[in-house]
Amino acid sequence: MSGFSDSATTLKALRAVVQEFIDERDWSQFHTPKNLSMSLAVEAAELMEHFQWLTPDESRQLSADKIAEVSEEMADVFCYLMSMANELEIDLAEAFEKKMNKNRMKYPAVEFRGRFGLDDPRPVSE
After folding, report:
1. What pTM was estimated for this model as a whole?
2. What's the Rg (C-alpha) of the chain?
């Protein structure tokens, strides 16, 4: 397996790779929505560990080795997410589009630009 890139690889292709990996090992019996959601949370926590105790600036200036470690954790999260989408037959691109549209309505840029939320006392950025 090689040649994958964000610009050239579809979610459908990645989901197929994940499903093939699971099928080859007869792991579908273990990949229930409950187990997958728990595994996704565990992997997300492992990702967070890499940033625990770092300042915001430090979290943006990771070494190449740390980036490699973080990318592996991100891939773990992504694999479990795709496996869960396969199990529940959720179209991730469609779900993403719906959620982004909902977020655009909930957080209009003219009200939230440069602000973390309604309680943020800062004025809207220009």
Report:
1. 0.90
2. 18
CA within 13 Å, CB half, 61: 5
User: What 3-state class would DSSP assign to 52?
Assistant: coil
Query: Residue 86, SS3?
Result: helix
- The parts of the chain modelled with pLDDT lower than 50 are none
Angle between helices 64-88 and 92-106 (to 10 degrees): 110
Nearest to 84 by CA among 72, 92, 73: 92
Q: How many CB atoms within 10 Å of residue 42?
A: 13
Tokens of 9: 């690889």
Per the structure block, which two tokens stand in for 27? 């792991």
Q: Which among 7, 2, 83, 94 is positioned nearest to 39, based on CA atoms?
A: 83
